[in-house]
TrEMBL record:
GO molecular function annotation: carbohydrate derivative binding; DNA binding; DNA-binding transcription factor activity
Swiss-Prot/TrEMBL keywords: DNA-binding, Transcription, Transcription regulation
A Pfam family per the record: SIS
Domain SIS: 129-269
Superkingdom of origin: Bacteria
Domain HTH rpiR-type: 2-78
Protein name: HTH/SIS domain-containing protein
GO biological process: carbohydrate derivative metabolic process
Upper classification of the organism: Bacteria, Bacillati, Bacillota, Clostridia, Lachnospirales
C-alpha cells in the first residue's frame, strides 16, 4: 500500500462528508488523477473543486497538484514488500482459526505500523523538535491509555540523560504541572484520539501558557494537528478494536527511539557522562 493511501485511511474518519466522497473516489480511481482536470474529477465524484482542494490539504499536501506528484513518485519508487511476509487481515479477535494466523497478523500489523510511520517521517520537523527539546528548561510529557506507554518510555529515556522531564498519568497532577509551565518549556502529547477531552484540555492549557507544543498523533484535521507547533505523525492499520491490541503502540515507540537517539546525538558532549554512569550502575546491579 502506498503512502498516499495510508494518509487517506488514517484521516478518513475525521474528514467531512464531502471530502470522504473524494477520498472514496481517489482510493478506487487513483489513475483518474492523471487523466482528468479537477473540474471533471469534482463532477465524477459528486463533489466540488473546493472539496478536492480541502481533501488534498487534509491529508498533508498543498493541493491537487502536490497530491498527484506524490502518487507519481510512489508509482516509480514504491517500497516492495517481501511476498513471503505476513499480510494484514482485518479480523475481529474471535475470527482467527489458529495460533499461527494470530502471530502472522500481529506481526504484519506491527511491521506495517512502523513502515508507514517511517514513510511519513519529516526530517525538517524532527530536527526542529530536537532543537526545542535540547534547549528547553523543562519537558512535560503527556499520554493517556495505550499512548501512555510510549510517553512513559520517552520519559525514562530522557531521565537517563539527566533532562528535566515530567510525566504523570494522573489528570489532576498533569493540570498542576502544566499550571507551572513556561514559554521556554516543551509539552509533548502522545495521542491516539485527538478528540479525547482530557488530552485537548491539557493541550489548550499548555498552549495558553506559551509553551512549545509537540504532538505525536495520527493524520487528520482536528484542533491538535491544526494548531500544534510541531506534529510527528504516527499511523497504523486499524484492526481488532475489541481485542485491545493496538499496533499504534509500535508506531509511537519507533518515533520515541528515533527522537531519543537524535537528542542524544545532538547533545552528546553534555550527556555522555550520564550515559556512562547509568550503564555502569546497571552493570553493577546485574553482577550482584
Amino acid at each position: 500500500m502506498n503512502i498516499v493511501s495510508e494518509r487517506i485511511k488514517s484521516c478518513y474518519n475525521s474528514l467531512p462528508a464531502s471530502e470522504r466522497l473524494v477520498a472514496d473516489y481517489v482510493l478506487e480511481n487513483s489513475d483518474d488523477l492523471f487523466q482528468y482536470p479537477i473540474k471533471d474529477l469534482a463532477a465524477k465524484s459528486g463533489t466540488t473543486q473546493a472539496a478536492w482542494t480541502r481533501f488534498a490539504q487534509a491529508i498533508g499536501y498543498e493541493g491537487l497538484k502536490d497530491l498527484k506528484g506524490a502518487y507519481y513518485t510512489e508509482a516509480n519508487n514504491s517500497l516492495r514488500q517481501n511476498d513471503n511476509s505476513p499480510k494484514v487481515a482485518f479480523k475481529d479477535v474471535n475470527e482467527y482459526t489458529s495460533l499461527q494466523s494470530i502471530a502472522d497478523n500481529i506481526c504484519a500489523t506491527s511491521v506495517q505500523a512502523i513502515q508507514t510511520t517511517y514513510r511519513l517521517f519529516d526530517a525538517g520537523t524532527f530536527k526542529d523538535v530536537v532543537t526545542k527539546i535540547v534547549s528547553a528548561k523543562q519537558i512535560q510529557i503527556f499520554g493517556i491509555g495505550a499512548a501512555g506507554i510510549a510517553a512513559y518510555d520517552l520519559y525514562c529515556k530522557l531521565l537517563r540523560i539527566h533532562y528535566n522531564v515530567i510525566f504523570n498519568q494522573d489528570y489532576h497532577m498533569n493540570l498542576m504541572s502544566l499550571s507551572q509551565i513556561k514559554p521556554y518549556d516543551v509539552a509533548i502529547f502522545f495521542c491516539d484520539n485527538p478528540k479525547d477531552k482530557e488530552v485537548m484540555q491539557l493541550y489548550t492549557l499548555a498552549k495558553s501558557k506559551g509553551a512549545t507544543t509537540v504532538a505525536i498523533t495520527k493524520l487528520g484535521n482536528n484542533p491538535l494537528t491544526t494548531s500544534c507547533d510541531y506534529i510527528l505523525f504516527a499511523t497504523s492499520p486499524e484492526i481488532d478494536k475489541k481485542s485491545g491490541v493496538t499496533s499504534s503502540r509500535f508506531a509511537h515507540l519507533f518515533l520515541v527511539d528515533t527522537l531519543y537517539t537524535a537528542i542524544a546525538n545532538r547533545d552528546y558532549e553534555n550527556i555522555r557522562e550520564y550515559l556512562k554512569d547509568s550503564f555502569e550502575v546497571f552493570n553493577e546491579v546485574q553482577k550482584d
